[in-house]
Amino acid sequence: MNDEMLGIVLAGGKGTRLGKLTQNQAKPAVPFGGRYRIIDFTMSNCVNSGIRNIGVITQYQPLVLDRHIGNGASWGLDRLDSGVTILQPYSSPDGSKWFAGTAHAIYQNIDYIDSINPKYLLVLSGDHIYKMDYSDMLQQHIDNGASLTVAVIDVPWEDASRFGIMNTDEHDRITEFVEKPAEPKSNHASMGIYIFNWARLREVLVNNFTKNDNMLDFGKNVIPYYLDSGEPVYAYRFSGYWRDVGTIMSLWQANMEFLEPNNGLNMQDRSWRINSRSPLAPPQMLTDTAEVSQSMIVDGCYVAGKIQHSILSANVRVKEGSQVIDSMIMPGASIGRDVTIRRAIIGENAVIGDGVTIDGGDDDIAVVGNGETLGGTSNEE
């Protein structure tokens, strides 16, 4: 795997649907599950699958993500036979300065990919929560003699019109790709995970961009081109836990699922670790007024209030008389006295003053942005 396949993580998404949580960072850098950031799952999947060279393509607000990834040491990628490379936009000879789409981002980084010279290119999204062994997908790709393999997951039929849908024959060869069809013929939704034969993809991108043809995006341009050209394109069916956390509701739901003892991620599985770069912090402190039930409390937290079915990330403070229910509190947030938080996501380093109530209600999720201050601040304990 290390010699055959290079992993490219597309991590430049702005994540506009996450609103305040992505004003100063890309979506893959958004905290998840107390100890992690969203990109940790894709990075860990690569390493666990035997992929030791990874390129991470960034664009929007990359500083937090760059610092988090660093030299890849948290994933064991700081060795002689491995590495992680941050690939940011630059001014190219044709005058391009920004990545105009997923395929264009690959084209702009051909020199880097050629320097690794992989036989296969694994293209991944950096903003999904899941575990997957990419070596199984590669083996199917080889067995099928495929030029392109697309990972798909079966979604409920009533949701199929929200996804890019792959229609297949009895051998899982893709015969048609339809973006958000009004009347879907199948429920095989694209996961945004692709394995290409690099030599062929390189040829397609270079030829089309040389002619100034529109080949900017994999879903809109490259996959239809492959199908129209008669390339062998196959679906790889995935049936495990996978969540697209691109909206506030989906991000909140995935965090709440993370609290369930038998959630699909099975974080207790030591054979498939999800690694992350975690800050050094003192042990958690629970005072004699603290009440905690069905919650995760990470290092560095000070808790003097009531925490129920919630996640407190590193270095969160919850003072006496406050209660946090069905919520996700991101790193460094400070919650004053007599505060009520219910069905909410509180952003990194937010400050919630004494007596404030934040309630998403029964049908919505309240959001406090990164670094946002609500109400007056109270004295430190």
From TrEMBL:
Protein EC: 2.7.7.27
Taxonomic superkingdom: Bacteria
Pathway note: Glycan biosynthesis; glycogen biosynthesis
Residues given in the record as alpha-D-glucose 1-phosphate binding sites: 164, 179-180, 190
Residues annotated as site: Could play a key role in the communication between the regulatory and the substrate sites: 59, 98
An annotated Gene Ontology molecular function: glucose-1-phosphate adenylyltransferase activity
UniProt-listed SUPFAM superfamilies: Nucleotide-diphospho-sugar transferases, Trimeric LpxA-like enzymes
Domain Nucleotidyl transferase: 7-259
One Pfam family named in its UniProt record: NTP_transferase
GO aspect biological process, one term: glycogen biosynthetic process
UniProt keywords, alphabetically: ATP-binding, Carbohydrate metabolism, Glycogen biosynthesis, Glycogen metabolism, Nucleotide-binding, Nucleotidyltransferase, Transferase
InterPro entries for the chain: ADP-Glc_PPase, ADP_Glu_pyroP_CS, GlgC_bac, GlmU/GlgC-like_hexapep, NTP_transferase_dom, Nucleotide-diphossugar_trans, Trimer_LpxA-like_sf
Signal peptide: none
Substrates-to-products reaction catalysed: alpha-D-glucose 1-phosphate + ATP + H(+) = ADP-alpha-D-glucose + diphosphate
Domain spans labelled Glucose-1-phosphate adenylyltransferase/Bifunctional protein GlmU-like C-terminal hexapeptide: 289-358
Function: Involved in the biosynthesis of ADP-glucose, a building block required for the elongation reactions to produce glycogen. Catalyzes the reaction between ATP and alpha-D-glucose 1-phosphate (G1P) to produce pyrophosphate and ADP-Glc.
Family: Belongs to the bacterial/plant glucose-1-phosphate adenylyltransferase family.
Subunit structure as annotated in this protein's UniProt entry: Homotetramer.
Protein name: Glucose-1-phosphate adenylyltransferase
Lineage: Bacteria, Bacillati, Bacillota, Bacilli, Lactobacillales
Gene from which this protein is expressed: glgC
